[in-house]
């Protein structure tokens, strides 16, 4: 569980802590694309920015590999994150 104020906000149709929403927004701003809420990340690799939530915390993030070159170091603050999945785009 993350160690911060649990101020919940709605992000893409689900409530998550403000700090987690800010991290996703930062990645969206870097990439110029929006995250999509999914129940789970496709094991074969996502083709778009995706995230999954459990107990109001982000547990999975999926993104095409081309978005991984400069992911914010703040992604390390997602202490409930269990999987970061990506797809190599050729």
User: How many helices in DSSP terms?
Assistant: 1
String of helices and strands: EEHEEEE
Q: What profile does the largest beta sheet have? A: 4 strands, mixed
User: Structural class of the helices, strands and pairings?
Assistant: alpha/beta
Question: How many domains would you count in the coordinates?
Answer: 1
What does this structure look like?
By secondary structure, this protein is of the alpha/beta class. The protein has one domain. 16% of the residues lie in helices and 31% in strands. It has 1 helix and 6 strands; from the N terminus they run ββαββββ. It has one helix at 18-31, and strands at residues 8-11, 14-17, 36-37, 50-54, 57-64, 83-87. The strands form 2 sheets. Strands 3-4-5-6 form a 4-stranded mixed sheet, with no helix packed on it. Strand 4 (50-54) and strand 5 (57-64) form a beta hairpin. The longest helix has 14 residues, at 18-31. The protein starts with 7 loop residues before the first strand and ends with a strand. The mean pLDDT is 80.
């Amino acid at each position: 569980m993350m160690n911060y104020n649990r101020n919940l906000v709605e992000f893409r149709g689900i409530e998550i802590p403000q700090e987690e929403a800010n991290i996703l927004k930062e990645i969206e701003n870097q990439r110029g694309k929006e995250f999509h809420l999914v129940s789970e990340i496709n094991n074969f690799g996502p083709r778009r920015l995706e995230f999954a939530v459990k107990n109001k915390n982000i547990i999975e993030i999926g993104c095409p590999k081309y978005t991984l070159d400069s992911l914010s170091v703040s992604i390390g603050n997602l202490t409930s994150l269990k999987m970061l999945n990506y797809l190599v785009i050729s």
